[in-house]
Write a structure and sequence with these properties.
alpha/beta; 7-stranded parallel β-sheet; 8 helices
């Protein structure tokens, strides 16, 4: 039986993609879930299908006050968060830096870096006080390589990598664990967001090979979370078999 049964797992960006897949996989293990996203209707639809206890937070992680207030006002039964999955993130565009959209930059920085920091700052102190907890950050291959047009997005994911390492150093004298899962190409809404809803362009990213699915990444997340307490999986890079690096992908036809 999984050691995750009845554990409280908070997942950000849970309304779709990797976040929703993590919710389903943790639910299969009997965990109790705090699901965080801006789209409340999506969260409600997901929660209805999970078959476990769920607490929903309709929340924009870029709003520091809202994050602090929401976590501080959690019902008593939901405060002892065991696992934090920092999944929320996005990309905007593939412009050269000197031609980039500054609003898009700010959205990426505010979500991918500051949002992760706000919720981590709200959750981790309580984990330290209880003497247990696991932070799993969803990074990216973009946190290891910089590719053409990826400038700001890659910078934010390099920041996630640095913050993960910093957390691990800062928490080394506690029982807490810190991990990162860094995927390559995953077929989710990611490319539609990057290309501002251009579905045809987004679909072209995933043609000619088999990309990862949200479930592939979620399985790695749950496996990491379910290791014995003395085992800390620091980093997992997960790629489709047809991908060798950020820009090297073998496509048929």
């Amino acid at each position: 039986m999984s050691d995750l049964k009845d554990r409280i797992v908070l997942i950000t960006g849970a309304s779709s993609g990797i976040g929703a897949a993590c919710a389903r996989k943790f639910a299969e293990c009997g965990a109790r879930l705090i699901l965080v996203a801006r789209r409340k209707e999506r969260l409600e639809q997901l929660a209805a299908d999970l078959g476990v206890e769920v607490h929903l937070l309709s929340l924009d992680l870029r709003d520091r006050t809202a994050v602090e207030d929401s976590l501080a006002s959690l019902p008593e039964a939901w405060r002892a968060i065991d696992i934090l999955v920092n999944n929320a993130g996005l990309s905007r565009g593939l412009d050269k830096l000197h031609e980039g959209d500054i609003d898009g930059w700010e959205e990426m920085i505010d979500t991918n870096i500051k949002g992760l920091l706000y919720i981590s700052r709200a959750v981790i102190p309580q984990m330290v006080n209880r003497g247990r907890g696991h932070i799993i950050n969803i990074g990216s291959i973009a946190g290891h390589e910089v590719y053409p047009g990826g400038n700001i997005y890659c910078a934010t994911k390099h920041a996630v990598d640095a913050l993960t390492k910093g957390m691990r150093i800062d928490l080394v004298d506690t029982p807490l664990r810190v991990s990162t899962v860094d995927p390559g190409l995953v077929e989710t809404e990611f490319s539609q967001v990057r290309f501002n809803g251009d579905k045809k362009r987004a679909e072209s990213v995933y043609k000619g090979y088999q990309p990862l699915t949200g479930d592939d990444v979620a399985e790695a997340v749950v496996w990491i979370a379910d290791r014995p307490p003395h085992v800390q999986i620091a980093e997992v890079i997960i790629l489709p078999t047809a991908q060798a690096s950020a820009m090297v992908v073998h496509k048929e036809g």
